[in-house]
Model the fold of this input.
Amino acid sequence: MKHRARKQWGQNFLKDSNLLNKLVALIDPKPEDLILEIGPGKGALTKKLSQKVSKLTAVEIDERLYSTLASQKELTNCTFINDDFLQTSWSEYGFGSQGIRVVGNIPYNITSPIIFELLKNRSKWKDAHLMVQKEVADRLAAKSGGKEYGRLTVMVQSQADVEKLISIPPDVFVPKPKVDSIFICIKPHSRYEMDKNMYARFDAVVRAAFGQRRKMLRNSLADFDLTKVKSIDFDRRPETLSVDEFVLLSNKIGRINPVEIPS
Ligand code: SAH
Done:
């Protein structure tokens, strides 16, 4: 059956076999790997990966694509789940406690929620290879100082390392997206130990700092008590602070009453 691509689900399918082989080589799947694929679509990447690994589970929101995939006899080591990745509990993937490898040519309109969902569950996976819009890749992998460096950069890099692997032009997708893409790899790290409260405060500080990007920290962080923070010059603007400095700042910063720390 011919499938009409659905825009609301960010459907841009990969067709080019050479490119798919290149992506698989970058993922470098090992026979013992357990793969979690987000948005398998028509299974272009799924087919190539499933031949190389022991087990692959894929979550696809589109019922029609899901049915086609689930009925394919050659994908015997694959399990398909017809659901929204953002609403699916990780216990449904049936992987146990081993490190999962996440892959996906994901819908661009929900890239950030997908990445935050991954980070929330970061103890459960080893790495994530994702196709994202170039501008988002630039923000995820940005270094301090530039205009791409912002809240998304600092929140993600506080939990994981992001590497840009290759640039992908629009014409390898059907239909063609209007934007360039970059295939990235995200690997969780544990350089900063933050409990739930510290993370909530970190989130609040980063949000406030970048909420008023052009202002000096002294002004954007006016709701916080800065007296205990000796090592940071509050005349600086948020994009000049490294991730290290944001962590240090949020660990030292005081709370001004009434405190509003989101849970
Ligand atoms: N991986 C395929 C398809 C990429 S298009 C390929 O490379 O050809 C993105 C896919 O994600 C589509 O199949 C779309 O239906 C699916 N999708 C969109 N939103 C989703 C969500 N919230 N959860 C799971 N799948 C989703």
Summary: The mean pLDDT is 93. The first strand starts at residue 13 and ends at 14. The two ends are 46 Å apart (CA to CA). The CA atoms of residues 46 and 220 lie 46 Å apart.
